[in-house]
Amino acid sequence: MVSIPEYYEGKNVLLTGATGFMGKVLLEKLLRSCPKVKAVYILVRHKAGQTPQERMEEMISCKLFDRLRDEQPGFKEKIIAVTSELTQSELDLSEEDKEKLIDCINIVFHCAATVRFNETLRDAVQLNVIATQQLIILAQRMKNLEVFMHVSTAYAYCNRKHIEEIIYPPPVDPKKLIGSLEWMDDGLVKDITPKLIGDRPNTYTYTKALAEYIVQQEGAKLNIAIIRPSIVGASWKEPFPAGKGILRTMRASNSAVADLVPVDVVVNTTLAAAWYSGVNRYSRPRNIMVYNCTTGGTNPFHWGEVEYYLNLSFKMNPLEQALRRPNVNIRSNPLLHQYWTAVSHILPALLHDVVLRLTDAAGEQAQLQYLAAQEVTRARENDGRAADQGYQRSQGG
Hints:
The chain is built from 12 helices and 11 strands. The protein is an alpha/beta fold. The chain has one domain (4-239, 248-293): Rossmann fold. The strands form 3 sheets. A 7-stranded parallel sheet has the order 3-2-1-4-5-6-10, sandwiched between helices. Strands 7-9 form a two-stranded parallel ribbon. β1 (12-16), α2 (21-33) and β2 (39-44) form a beta-alpha-beta unit. The longest helix has 61 residues, at 334-394. Residues 390-397 have low confidence and may be disordered.
């Protein structure tokens, strides 16, 4: 069996969600640990006046890619930004880009998703279900595809007490739901959402369960693997331990299990799962391989312990470039949580806004003063030259 770097050698990879948290880490790890990968195509949309290429350039300029930059200075040449909008028909790909992907892609990593818990059902279905469906349809046309790796969540079936590594029947037929949403207005969708999601806590977990079923049904002829991470947290080791100290309070029970998994562990598992499915694509059973990437079942860690050890760790190992001295408060009482949210999050954010506005205003005023000073200097220089010329004329010069 070939090693993981050997398997990815010469491969063309398609990655969705590359600008997101997990997608960026996966991109960096793949390029750094598998240096002979041929190219990584990333689907990126226009955003805030930036082109996909500009967004890619900005993304790879961050500290996350410093180690890769030192080890492989030319890594940028392997990243190819492809203009795409996952919420649009056929992913809004140009015919040229579509044909290119169909001809060359060997491995697909589908990381893109909306992870907002309060997302409307219509928007969550559009990105988590319909976009997945359209990507599967595109993957079926890929001539050299070896593996389709779908990133799901361990909470897709959070209404079950025990979750095995299988795909469970969906809460509703995804195709019927998609068809219904086409004629329902937003008010009706909002009204029926609680009834539809049932005992699931939000539209995120509901639509991720639907997406798994879509992957199973629509991609029956593909070599597919699914990874289900729990709560993806800051990196443990690779490319460096990370944290910013921004989140300072959250509502949780101290006795509840905090199923946190470092992002580098999730990424390593994802790359290894794709490798295993790829090298065994002709011999393994045809059923979809599912990997639950969690900690709660074998090494439970509670939120009360998270608070204690995080605060202890921050004192012993201060973070680089932290915005404030990190401190974590975990409260189960909703009133206490709201108090700490106001004191630790909202008020500091408002103060930062005021400081930034004042700094910006001061900078603008300084720039105006500088420009005015330049105008005065130029005026004096012109007056001086005019006086010299007048003096020379008076002397017959």
